[in-house]
Design brief:
By secondary structure, the protein is α+β, with helices and mostly antiparallel strands. The chain has a two-stranded antiparallel ribbon.
């Protein structure tokens, strides 16, 4: 009995120490999606939001470009939040790393928003597209294993 109890406690402690906590990618001002209007992604025109139209959801601020989008988000925030806390989907799938994103590098797939890192030399959205099935599966698994 003592050995079983020690094994269970060890398993619990080991799991909690080696899983990363879920976090949300925010910029230096505390805005998710680098201050872009989350609803605008679903219209196909990612647009930077306005400070006058800010919503705080679960401790993260989100800006919106117009009152209509502001209201849509408040009606159903989960519908518009980016997957994997707004971190680069490719990096979460490849190595479970939290990598900042370029808010204009994105895809909408099955009604969900995925953001990617992109600069002059690297475009992780292209890398994601080359091996999307495996990376998506890995990213979902990596993210669900977090606390």
């Amino acid at each position: 009995m003592k050995n079983i109890l020690i094994t269970i406690i060890t398993l619990i402690l080991t799991t909690s120490f080696f899983t990363q906590p879920k976090s949300v990618n925010v910029n230096k001002d505390g805005y998710g999606a680098n201050g872009y209007d989350l609803v605008s992604y679903f219209d196909g025109t990612p647009t930077e939001g306005s400070e006058e139209l800010t919503v705080t959801h679960e401790g993260v601020k989100y800006k919106f470009s117009n009152k209509k989008n502001y209201n849509k988000f408040q009606e159903d925030p989960e519908k518009y939040l980016p997957e994997y806390g707004g971190w680069c989907a490719y990096a979460i799938g490849k190595s479970d790393d939290e990598v900042k994103v370029n808010p204009e590098a994105y895809i909408i797939e099955d009604g969900k928003l995925y953001l990617f890192y992109k600069n002059i030399f690297i475009n992780t959205k292209k890398k994601w597209n080359k091996n999307e099935e495996e990376l998506h599966k890995n990213a979902d698994e990596n993210w669900s294993n977090r606390k």
